[in-house]
Amino acid sequence: MLALHSAAALAQNALPNGRPPREDGPIVRTPPTRATPSAERALLAAHAQRTETVGPPRWGLGAVAFALVSGIGLALTWQLTQPRGRRTMRAAPRAGLSLHPGIEVRALVIAVDWSRRAAIDATLGAVLARADLQTCAGQHTMLATVRDAFATEHVGIRAAAMQAWTTDPAAGPALFEQVLGTTNYRAQAASQSATPGGHDRVAVLSLVVATRCPLPPVPARVDVTAVLRALEALVPPKPEMLAGASALWTPFAPAYGLDAAALRVQFPEAVAVGGAPSSRPVA
Hints:
two-stranded antiparallel sheet; 5-stranded antiparallel sheet; alpha+beta
């Protein structure tokens, strides 16, 4: 009975008139009338499908993560499908240049009519008298002067050869000295077999250059245009890109030249301008 009386007291305090309706049996309370929410009606309706949204939307951590990953994926997809010129993820290298992280060494041999040597020497002497060939700036000036001088005297070019080597920075100085040593040895040997200059003689200028930047590929064939382009390629955009440069005439004496037989013996890689393919670059 104690439990019944306590329930009756609680019912009286909760109702407005203080008296609950009575029926045979236990005490009951009439529930108040309330409007059924639309979400609840959809849940209870017989036609409600499992794919329908019931109640207010709730965003969990999984949904947020999915939205974030989807956004990143869309951004990458857009970036990769843009035209090559509009991509911003990486800068495109200059056309015609090979990319390498080390030192590139070039050897260029140009045989010119002996009669043209005096004019080329005069151009070189006027400029190099004021240049310090022990510095990158002086060597850069020398290469640019050689380029300009041969552009003026290009009609005298008779034969040429171009070779290239690429190595890592640590081995670069040794490779440059090796190629330079071979060039000096051949110049000494050729000078001993030189004869007085004349219309059938040639003088050979040997250039050895090492750069810290990639250079255009060696031309597949030798002609005057290819030789001038090769000279242009030896002049890097900035002096600090040079790692070394040397220019040497053969024969040493300006009054002497090489005949065709001596040229073939001492410079077998040189080919006539406009003739056979040049020597292929060595990797």
